Amino acid sequence: MWIPTEHEKYGVVIASFRGTVPYGLSLEIGDTVQILEKCDGWYRGFALKNPNIKGIFPSSYVHLKNACVKNKGQFEMVIPTEDSVITEMTSTLRDWGTMWKQLYVRNEGDLFHRLWHIMNEILDLRRQVLVGHLTHDRMKDVKRHITARLDWGNEQLGLDLVPRKEYAMVDPEDISITELYRLMEHRHRKKDTPVQASSHHLFVQMKSLMCSNLGEELEVIFSLFDSKENRPISERFFLRLNRNGLPKAPDKPERHCSLFVDLGSTELRKDIYITVHIIRIGRMGAGEKKNACSVQYRRPFGCAVLSIADLLTGETKDDLILKVYMCNTESEWYQIHENIIKKLNARYNLTGSNAGLAVSLQLLHGDIEQIRREYSSVFSHGVSITRKLGFSNIIMPGEMRNDLYITIERGEFEKGGKSVARNVEVTMFIVDSSGQTLKDFISFGSGEPPASEYHSFVLYHNNSPRWSELLKLPIPVDKFRGAHIRFEFRHCSTKEKGEKKLFGFSFVPLMQEDGRTLPDGTHELIVHKCEENTNLQDTTRYLKLPFSKGIFLGNNNQAMKATKESFCITSFLCSTKLTQNGDMLDLLKWRTHPDKITGCLSKLKEIDGSEIVKFLQDTLDTLFGILDENSQKYGSKVFDSLVHIINLLQDSKFHHFKPVMDTYIESHFAGALAYSIREKWLFPVKVNTIQKSLTGPWCLHEEFESLMPYHSFYAMSLLNKYSLSPLKLTFKNCIFKAQEYIFKYIVQSRRLFSLATGGQNEEEFRCCIQELLMSVRFFLSQESKGSGALSQSQAVFLSSFPAVYSELLKLFDVREVANLVQDTLGSLPTILHVDDSLQAIKLQCIGKTVESQLYTNPDSRYILLPVVLHHLHIHLQEQKDLIMCARILSNVFCLIKKNSSEKSVLEEIDVIVASLLDILLRTILEITSRPQPSSSAMRFQFQDVTGEFVACLLSLLRQMTDRHYQQLLDSFNTKEELRDFLLQIFTVFRILIRPEMFPKDWTVMRLVANNVIITTVLYLSDALRKNFLNENFDYKIWDSYFYLAVIFINQLCLQLEMFTPSKKKKVLEKYGDMRVTMGCEIFSMWQNLGEHKLHFIPALIGPFLEVTLIPQPDLRNVMIPIFHDMMDWEQRRSGNFKQVEAKLIDKLDSLMSEGKGDETYRELFNSILLKKIERETWRESGVSLIATVTRLMERLLDYRDCMKMGEVDGKKIGCTVSLLNFYKTELNKEEMYIRYIHKLYDLHLKAQNFTEAAYTLLLYDELLEWSDRPLREFLTYPMQTEWQRKEHLHLTIIQNFDRGKCWENGIILCRKIAEQYESYYDYRNLSKMRMMEASLYDKIMDQQRLEPEFFRVGFYGKKFPFFLRNKEFVCRGHDYERLEAFQQRMLNEFPHAIAMQHANQPDETIFQAEAQYLQIYAVTPIPESQEVLQREGVPDNIKSFYKVNHIWKFRYDRPFHKGTKDKENEFKSLWVERTSLYLVQSLPGISRWFEVEKREVVEMSPLENAIEVLENKNQQLKTLISQCQTRQMQNINPLTMCLNGVIDAAVNGGVSRYQEAFFVKEYILSHPEDGEKIARLRELMLEQAQILEFGLAVHEKFVPQDMRPLHKKLVDQFFVMKSSLGIQEFSACMQASPVHFPNGSPRVCRNSAPASVSPDGTRVIPRRSPLSYPAVNRYSSSSLSSQASAEVSNITGQSESSDEVFNMQPSPSTSSLSSTHSASPNVTSSAPSSARASPLLSDKHKHSRENSCLSPRERPCSAIYPTPVEPSQRMLFNHIGDGALPRSDPNLSAPEKAVNPTPSSWSLDSGKEAKNMSDSGKLISPPVPPRPTQTASPARHTTSVSPSPAGRSPLKGSVQSFTPSPVEYHSPGLISNSPVLSGSYSSGISSLSRCSTSETSGFENQVNEQSVPLPVPMPVPVPVPSYGGEEPVRKENKTPPPYSVYERTLRRPVPLPHSLSIPVTPEPPALPPKPLAARSSHLENGARRTDPGPRPRPLPRKVSQL
Question: Is the pTM of this model over 0.70?
Answer without folding.
Answer: no
